[in-house]
Amino acid sequence: MNLKQMHARAQSTYRVRGFALGLAILVGAVGCDSLLDVELPSSVSGEALDDPGTAQLQLNAIMGQIECGLSAYQYHAAGYEDVFEMIAGAYGNYSQYAEAPGSLGEDEQCDPDISNFDWYDPMQIGRASANQLYDRIQNVWTPESVTNREQILAQTALYSAVALETFGGVFCEMTVDGGPLMTPDETLAAAEQWATTALEHIGATGDFELANGITGFDDEAGIEEFAHALRGRIRWARGNYAGASADIAMVPEGFTAWISREGRPERRNKVYFFSNPGSGRVLPALNTTFWSDPDAGFPGFFDPPAYAGGDWPNPIPFTGYLDLGIAPNGRALTAEATPYPVTTAATGAVADNRVPIRFQTVAAGGTVLYPVPNKYRSEGDDMPLVSWRELELIMAEIEPASAVGRVNNLRALHGLPQVTYGPATENEIENMIIEERRRELWLEGRYWVTKLQHTDKLWFPRDFGNWNISGIPLNGGVRIAMPESEYILNESLDLSDRGTMCDASQAPIIIG
Amino acid sequence: MGSFPGQQTFEPRQSLLGWRTPLAAAALFLAALVSSPTLYAQEAGTVTGRVTDATTAQPLASAQVSIAELGVGALTQQNGRFILVNVPAGTHTVTVQRIGYRNGTSAVTVTVGEATNVDFAIEEEALALDEIIVTGTPGGTQRRALGNSVAQVEAADVVERSTITDMQELLSARAPGLTFQTNNGNVGAGSQIQIRGVSSLELGAQPLIYVDGVRIDNSANKGPALGNSEGAASSLNDFNPQDIESIEVIKGPAAATLYGTEASAGVIQIITKKGLSGAPEFNLMIRQGGNFMRDPAGVLGTKYACPDTAIIPESGRACREADLLSYNAYEIANDWVRQENWNGQDEILQMGHAQGYNLSVRGGTDQVRYFLSGDYSNDEGVLYYNWDKAVRLRGNVSVLFTEDLTIDVSTGYTQGESRFADVPGEGNIFHDLVWSRYNSSISEDPATIFNDRLPYASEKVESLRNYNRFTGSATASYNWNWLTQRLIVGLDKSWDTNSRLIPLDPAGNYEGSYDDETGTGGVLFYGRPSTTNATFDYAATADYQPTDALTFTTSVGAQYYFEELEEITNTGRAFGTNLQTTLNQTAIDQLTLTFEDVQNKSLGVYFQEQVGWADRIFLTGAIRADDNSAFGSGFDLEYYPKVSLAWVLSEESFWPAGAPINSLRLRGAWGKAGRQPDTFAGVTTYTSFQGPAGPGITPFTPGNENVGPEVSTEIELGVDFALFDDRVSGEFTYYDQTVNDALVNQGIAPSLGVPGDVSLNLGELAVSGWEATLSSRLYQSDNVAFDLNLSGDHTQNEIVSLGEGVLESDNFQLGFPYPNVTGTYLDSAAVLNTGVYGNAWCDRGTPEGRPGGESVPCSDLQGFETSLLYGPAYPTYNFAIAPTLTLFNDLQLFALADGEYGRWVADVNTQYAGVYRNTRAAQLRTDPLYLAGNAVGDERYLGRVPADHWKLREVGARYNLPQSLVQRMGADRASISFSGRDLLMLWQKSKTDLGGQKILDVETAGPTTASANTALWTMPSLASVSATLRVSF
């Protein structure tokens, strides 16, 4: 070995040792996970939810999400309640079937756009979170670790019931937690179970005030009355009239549980938003002329059945909401009645103050006056969640003999003429109750449910062939299915499952 | 790993592999330094002279000038001058050597006690195989050893010749495979960058960008949101082109392996100017010019209107042809401008003044060298309230502490402000004219030509970006015997303030189309984003040469990156009066605040071994391991291997001397690189949510604990060649990539109770293409030279897999390119009556979603049958032609034209022409395809436009002022150049749409990669002319 070779060998040895050491240091550096720890102060990690001290925080958000979804739902329901009929999900491109899961960014928390279906998402978020919180409190955390444990359990259960009752009322099939399909009755049964659970916890701790602004003539009204009112509505929807009557009897006159959260962006009174000057938007179908307007894309053959006065026909016509009134004998008058407007429709008729409309421009700088709903005047206006007024009409339906008296209770509440024209037959009474629900519960999200319960009587823009705007066939169907994304992304379901559990008379329209 | 060659500034850097003649020269140089200065003093003279580039006549610094037989040598200073002292009398051969240039020799006769002058004009080497490449290598490697293509832009040369106002102008059309997607015609707006097209479904196409070895914020959507889109400014343009020495671009995973995670979209390495030894040299640049829109009246074209009396009853508002009115919206708008004396202008679109001033100084000693630069620019757009101004400072210092240790400090600071022309929801005034509505009262009141609002209203919308940025690094280089070490520590920090004010407007002129839920109260968006990018980069390289031919080069390295975006955003609505314009003056209940803090950390190590044989064959293998804070907790390290081979075939003994191909290098590389997922992809996050009982906490985004990086695998094959004694040279590269584990954002079942999408490594994308360049000196004589450079590239991609359960969408379909343009294909239609179509038949498409299927009534189309593929939303072919004519070495005439093919855009103007009825077809309503296309396909039929075009990107002349004049000025050299940019659309495939409306500049598109549907929404890019004076003294 010459000198050069020895030098090369020595150099090689040093290299190997040096690089082995260097590599060891570098590999060690990679293994040091703390170097990669990041702080994400603008977000909260899931670990925070494991702390029993956050129970109230979690409950607050659950109530917020569900009430937020409900406020959006009430806006959407208006779209299905004659005002802006899109039961087929086909007006323009506003198809619920094309809906992807809502992405609730910070600026968009529970901010459903008119083309979206976002009320479903926040209510599912609230429902799922409620179930998870209930499970943590019952099965993970010690009883001592949760302050106001029974109260939180009661509210968690009750708001689960609120969400499920809403779903069961309008969907013909439903799912929870990525599970299989449930029928509306199964969904309502789950809602009833949660309401019963809530009442059990209330019983354990005693009635208490709820932060969502319950009001009533009875100063003692609290969450117990709320729970009974809700369960009464659920039982009525399930056909358990005796059970419903028992619950409703526990609700004091004048009771209302409100969706009362204020401020933006979480709170969205979309009906208010829709009628707000400057938004450039307006509910276009407060009267039936919309349905004959070629510029709106309707060629005329979708026109609803005409109504020319007299007794309510069967099916009940689509009448719009313009200029509704009450005749001196208590008969409901419609905008289409002759003569028009209502102030001259019948001697002594008065405007129905439960359906307030005002005319105004809807775009900045605009000059055209449009009819817009005037029920909610600001985004902060409360919206009813469940009320004694609705329960009176439910009882009128359960006990037809008391129907006129109960309707007159509501008329008196609003200073409107009493019913004296004497609806006598079962059909006439039912028609009276339906029309009374349409007005009494206007823009409260409840008349949609009424329509779904009376598809034999109420008009839907269906079975009229192709919808001219987008060429989508509307061959029957009145309920809606869950968003398409639920079928695609739910591992228990497939898109081909859509509508399979729906009653034929209420089957949703399946597009594509 | 990419590195910043700090020590390069002291002597032309050579690896041991290239230590042939430069080594000898350096030895001679050193020998000269240690020799006794008195040895020849009494019998010697001096040799002085200047070394310049033979083509550009620009001085060349750092060239080695030597007399080999005497051991005398020196380096040229930045003005190209040199002096050899103590040269014995007699005739000697002086040799000049510089990397990237051919050697120059000249015989000189030295007289005792006198100075003999000899100048050299040396020519660039065609392939520059000994050039040092720093990007994608551990510590700088000769080009000959690289197995992959690296494009190098000699930025300093480009800036010297042409007028370059921002970094994207500097790079545009100068490196095949690198493209820019122009955002809009606002000055201050930037472009999205793409290298080899789009290779990710969710992560965009922005490459990594480094400045002097420090990773910087590479966002291309800085600034306030304009219209309904993202911000349009590019952070790349925060840097001053005058400060840049060169730019290297590596284009694919095979080359970017050592950058690991985050690098698969390519890497751009910007190297700023450094100091040079010698007396300080000052360089002054003064630029004056203007920005304008080419022929705006012609761009808008003739539009049509119909008098009310000419509307045919029952025809859907069709117009009688004989009564049709034609008009030019631009001319009528100018009538209004003159009538109102709006801003004192004659035309609504003005020539915006563009100006720039730069002063730099460069110099130093052997131990300390510096480069200092200050720059001010102020450019105005065609609307007087659109401007972009900035002050940019740079200070670079290099210190030689010992023979082994050098430290380079690089610092840059920018302060600037841009105001964009912008109105809610739309482009700006320009689109009020594109969408003009003519009416019968227009002759009396030209104001009605503006669609939505008068210029008085548009000018009140104030969109501002105020930015401050510091980028600095320190590079320590330690060279000891066989070991080279380099450490880079650096920081890129920016502080921006973005604001967008739509003031209260009692008249309702400019708020109407804005989705302002508070009504007419006005709104102010105010955001303060701050970005931080910190870099720690260590590399060590050891050389081992057991035989004369065989070399081993072993490298290890580690990088640690920290990246953070902090942003506080306020939105205030409802001002009390139109005098109020700040957040504190909005209604308190309409004031919102958001805060975002996103951090990402990345740590990686690599090992590379390169084996060389006879300085001709190089085999390189490397592996990198990466971890990243965005990886899910269930995901461990990602490994990125690479192998490459380079063979300089023309230096083999068997290569025939005098062959037409005088240089030939074959290369091939295979490697992987990645892209890390979004910061929050791996964790489920929760956010605050207000409930009736108080604030709460609710699910916000779902996390995937197993999420990892996208991994791109690429094979790249190429050849570099020079022909006919370097008269022609070029390279060709073919690449084929597969992007595995492509991130796909998939929704989760809403019933699971977590909103948003979850990131899954489900997709697969195939990307392939080629790049080619050809440079030639077609003619050369003593006084005339004509050079022609050609380049071209092709790229295409296809979604191979999306994974089970992922929702397809129009822009997201299996077998389609991404992003793409899709729509309905209308086959035929008939006119039932005037203005009413019937019997519309559409192409149902093939099972693959391509046109060519069964023709069916359009109403029968279902689902994706309405979204057949028109084409990709990015160019698939790009070409550039750059001729240069040099006369008498001092006058250069140059041009650069580039062409783009394959891309489709969605022209929303076509849709709105139907809405506003200002085209001939929209008025007459006799063309059944037009009527049915609007109705059946919505905008999808008429608005699909191929964007193929050729544009004259640059044209100009540069003249070196005569030396006699320069010396009278007291300067060393001076030049003046005139140049124009984007002066001419040479060819555009789609000139008008089916409605007869002129199609705007198809190059201008939306600001995001996937926003094909917003293309042509904004004002076309502007043209500019300028004159630049450069003086060195």
Task: Report what the structure shows.
The complex is a heterodimer of chains A (512) and B (1033). Chain A has a domain at 49-208 and 474-506. Chain A is globular and about 85 Å long. Chain A has helices at 3-31, 55-78, 120-140, 149-170, 184-205, 223-237, 241-248, 270-274, 388-398, 403-414, 426-440, 447-453, 484-489, and strands at 44-45, 256-259, 325-326, 332-333, 350-351, 357-360, 370-373, 383-387, 466-467, 472-473. Helices cover 38% and strands 6% of the residues of chain A. Chain A has 512 residues and is mostly helical. In chain B, β27 and β28 (550-573) form a beta hairpin. In chain B, 8% of the residues lie in helices and 48% in strands. Chain B has two domains: 35-124, Sandwich (Immunoglobulin-like), CATH 2.60.40.1120; 159-278 and 283-293 and 349-424 and 461-824 and 867-907 and 943-1032, Beta Barrel (Maltoporin, Chain A). Chain B is built from twelve helices and 50 strands. Classes of the chains: A mainly alpha (512), B mainly beta (1033). At the A-B interface, α1, β1, α2, α3 and α13 of A face β27, β28, β29, β30 and β33 of B. β1 (44-45) of chain A pairs antiparallel with β33 of chain B, so a sheet runs across the interface.
